[in-house]
Specification:
Elements lengths: L8 E7 L3 H15 L11 E7 L6 H10 L4 E5 L6 H11 L4 E4 L11 H6 L7 E5 L13 H14 L13 E4 H4 L12 H8 L7 E5 L14 H43 L3 H5 L1
Parallel strand pairs: 1-2, 1-4, 2-3, 5-7
Antiparallel strand pairs: 4-6, 5-6
Helix pairs in contact: 1-2
Amino acid sequence: MASRQTTHYSVIVPAYRENGNIRPLITRIFAALRRVDSPVPAEQTEVIIVDDNSRDGSAETVQQLQQEGYNVRIIVRTTERGLSSAVVRGFQEAQGDNMLCMDADLQHPPEYVPSMLAAMSPSHTFVLGTRYGKGVEMDKDWPVHRRIISAGARVLALPLTTASDPMSGFFGIRKEAFLKARNLNAGGFKIALDLLIKSQIPPHAIAEVPFSFGVRAEGESKLTGKVMIKYLEQLAELYWYKFSSLLVFLVIFLIVAFFVLVRTWFGSPSLDSQQK
C-alpha cells in the first residue's frame, strides 16, 4: 500500500448498500491507474469508501481488498447519513491534494479516473466529468423521464455557473480550493454545485472531461421525490448565497430612486411660485 508521504491523489466514494459494486469498482480503478499510459501513478493514489453504516459486508470486502494490496480504506458513519455529507467527510479525511468524487454504482466509469485526476493542477482547481461534451450521447442508457429530470435540473442551475454539467457527481477539487469553501450545504443534493459556488471557482479554473454514463451494476437508484425537493431547496439557498448582495443593492437603489423622484416632483417649489 502507498505510504502517507506518497499519496497525492484521493478518490472518494460515498456508498450505502453498495457492497456488490465495491470489488469491481476498486479493481477497475487500480487497473486503469496501472496502465502504462496512465498519467497518474497507482502508487500515489488512495481510495476512500465513505459508508453510511450499510451493514451489508462492505467493510469486510474492503478489508479483503486491503489484504490483496489495494490502497483502499473505509469510513463507516453511524451517526450521519447522506451523499453530500459523505463526500465532505471523505474530502476532509483525504491525504491527497487532488481529490476526486465518484459514485459506487459503476455509472461513473473507473477507466476515466486517471484522466480526471490528471486534469487537476494549481491552475485548474476543479475538474468536472461532463455528459455534455463533444461526441458524448448524454445519458444514452437512461429512461426518458430520467433524461428530462436531468436536463431540467441543469437548466435551473445555469444562472449559477458556466460549467456545462454542474449536476455531475463525477468531479474533483484541489484541497486548497475545498478549504476555501464556507457554509457548505452538507444536506444538499448536488455537492459539486455547492462547491463550485462556495469555493468561488472561476470559469477558467474548471477543467472538463467528457464521459458517457455507465449502467448501474448492482443495487437501486437513490433518486426519489424527496431528493428532488432537496435539490430545489439547495438551489434556493445557492441563489440567495450568490445574488443576495445584488438584490439588496437593487432594493436600495429603487428606494433611493423613489425618494429622488418624490422630491423632484413634489418637494421642489414650482416655477409659478418662484415667479410670484
